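Attaching the record inline, Q. Sequence:
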Amino acid sequence: MRSLHGKRAIAGGAIVTAAALLMTASPMASAEPKLPTPEEAMAFSLGKTLTLKIQDGTATTAEIENFKKLFPDVAKVLEDPSQTEVSVQEAVITEDGEAVSPETGKPLTAAQLAEIEPPADAKPSDPSEEEETPEETAVDPAAPPAEADGDLTAKVKGGKWKMTHITHTHRSYLGQTILKYHTYARFNYKGGKVRAWGKRYDRFSNESDVVKIGSRIENRKSKVPASSATSMMKRHVELCFAGSIGCYANIYPWAKVKVYGSGKTKVAGSGA
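Structure, as predicted:
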C-alpha cells in the first residue's frame, strides 16, 4: 500500500464570489439577509486577492500570517490552496485473487484493504455521463516490452486488477479541514497493456458546516486496451455560511490517475 502525503501550492483554488460581499452568516429563519459590516466586506475582498496570489505563487508568508491574525473568523472558513494535501493508497488483486501491496507484494489485511476500496456511500460513475477520450500510447519506460494479447475488447479474463484511492484534503487558512475529496479507479493490466477499466467512484468525507456539495462536472476515462490510460473526475463545491443562504466561494476538486500496462500509476490533480 502506497501512501504519499505532502502540502503543495495548487493552481485553481477557491474563488470568492460577490455573494460574500452582499450577505454574511444569518439564520435561515431571518426574513432578510444581514449585510456585511465594512470589516467583513474588506476581509473577504482581501481573502480573494490573497487566494489568487497563492495560486500564482506571489503571496508572501507575511501576507498570509497577517491575514490570519487580522481576520480569524474569515480565515477559518476560506480555503487556503497552499495547504491542500494529497495521499494515495493502492492495492493489487493478483490472478489468484489475493489482495497485496504493490510495493512489497505482501498480503493486505482486511483493515488495510478497507482503506483502499470505496465504501458504501461512494458514488459510482454513471456510464451515461462518461466521456471516453482517445487511446493513449505512452508506455512505462521501466516495464518489459508489451506482449501480444489478442482482442481485449471482449470480457477480460486473467491479468491483475489494481485499485487506486486518491484523497485531496482541503484546509482553511487556519488549518481546519474543510473537506476531503476521494476518487477511486480500478483497472486490469497484463503484458504491458491496460486491458480494461473496472468501477470508478468518488465521494466526500470530513465536510465542515460550510460545505455544500454539488454535481460531478467532469467524468473522463480513456479508451482501452492501450499501453496506458487515464481516469479523471471533477466536482463543484460551494462554501456557504452555516445556516445561511449566502455562499461565498466555489471550489472545483478534481483528481486524475494515469495508469500503465505495467501496473504503475501516476497521480495528478489540483484538488481545487
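The radius of gyration is 21 Å. The chain is about 15% helix and 35% strand.

More tomorrow.
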